Fold these 2 entries.
Entry 1:
Amino acid sequence: MSEDLFYKPPTPIQPIHSSVAEKAGVQWVIKRDDRIDPQISGNKWRKLKYNLQCAKEQGYKTLLTFGGAYSNHLYAVAAAGSLFGFETIGIIRGQEFAQLSPTLQFAQSCHMQLELWPREEYRLKEKSELFKQIQEHYDSFYMIPEGGSNALAVKGCTEIIEEIDIPFNYVSCACGTGGTIAGLIAGLHDKNICLGIPVLKGGDFLKSDIQELLSQYYLQEGKTIPPFRNWQLETNYHFGGYAKTTPELISFIHRFEQENNFLIDQVYTAKMLAGIEDLILQGRFKRGDTIISIHTGGLQGRLPQLSNM
Ligand SMILES: Cc1ncc(COP(=O)(O)O)c(C=O)c1O
């Protein structure tokens, strides 16, 4: 498969309008990865690109992955299957749906085979008894982990940094499984500082996951892992935990969208941006610093009750 099939032009970088940043003399900009592709958007494209290429090269016809009923990753894998000619299997956490979520309805419309698993089995993933049945039933498949984070996903995310053509001091992203930030860290080569905002409570456990993903990436590249010191996690901006919101977060989204004229989701990018704005307010950055925040997409999961502009 030619690399060209996966070519996307660099995503734009645009200023963020924020009176907080203006007062602090900080240049705050956003890299609009949400605009990569309408369905395989943001970090999903970055994470899937080399996985899809690898699956094609190795002759796989089917992709299998895992996710919750509102998973951006599952949505993107289903769309990628249709676009690049793979069958797809989605193993879903939980069976309690009277009606499929909009994400799962979309996945089904892309012909993804949905397997709804009890939560206990889901926790075991490929070690579960149900997985043996899947292996017996389907000939072979290329497996992509939950959230899409593996060494090839990290490689894809390093390209976010390669596309940046302006000088900057900081780059920031939302963190779930840690694959995206691992790619940013590797792409930065220990220059500049990477700030990760975990969207789950107790995000400190992520540090070792990120280290592990970096190790896998450098192993795959046949290089020794450098002793990176250029990244930090800011764990105070989960707003109650994964997929939780607070009135404060909702009013941040409304204000931010009005001032900036583009949409952000409440699960990932809004928490990251609200966190960065708060850090600016607290004087974390000096006058003249440039911060590049990454819009990692996820708009398919944006709450419908957040008004459309
Ligand atoms: C829209 C969006 N942004 C950010 C993230 C966090 O990325 P990661 O899981 O690589 O930390 C995710 C989850 O994958 C996501 O769906």
Entry 2:
Amino acid sequence: MSAAVIRPLADAPGLAPMLAAWHHAHWGHFYDPADWSLQAATDELRDHATRCGRPTTLVAFEGDEPAGSVSLVDEDAPEFNGVGDAWLASLFVRPASRGRGIGKALVRECVALAAREGVSRLWLFTPEHVGFYAALGWRDLGAAHLRGHAVHLMDIIPA
Ligand SMILES: CC(C)(COP(=O)(O)OP(=O)(O)OC[C@H]1O[C@@H](n2cnc3c(N)ncnc32)[C@H](O)[C@@H]1OP(=O)(O)O)[C@@H](O)C(=O)NCCC(=O)NCCS
């Protein structure tokens, strides 16, 4: 069980640039730089901060410190738009806070939010964390490629 508290980014919209910097540094190589610059990532999160329903972002706090985030979005990589229409995306826990259950708590909260939003099926893609998501009830749909990188597609029925 994580001691972190998970709140909507809408409660702390000023965090958007910092979260965007984390995300862009970690995942920039999966996207066309013309489509997803640091500015675009920041603008996307500022937009997420305007609402608590999809597309939106949840933030985990350890005390007052942001420790990680996850997003519930309509599309993630454009290459997978035909696969699904609701995605868990951008799960990230800052290195200093890993291994304390925050990642799992963010995934569970995102799936619960999807259920409240009436999402009947939620997808994600992951390059290397199939086991992490499988332990949380996600189904491995098999391998795929994204801009030259091997990933796995996974899904879950939100409940
Ligand atoms: C993946 C990530 C979100 C996990 O966050 P975290 O807060 O450390 O995760 P938790 O503490 O909740 O859970 C860690 C558990 O997952 C397990 N785990 C981590 N990676 C795993 C993997 N690839 N396969 C199987 N289990 C894995 C750990 O062994 C640990 O298990 P335990 O609880 O039984 O000890 C974090 O490492 C991270 O931000 N990584 C960089 C971004 C990233 O890769 N995000 C996922 C994108 S798909």
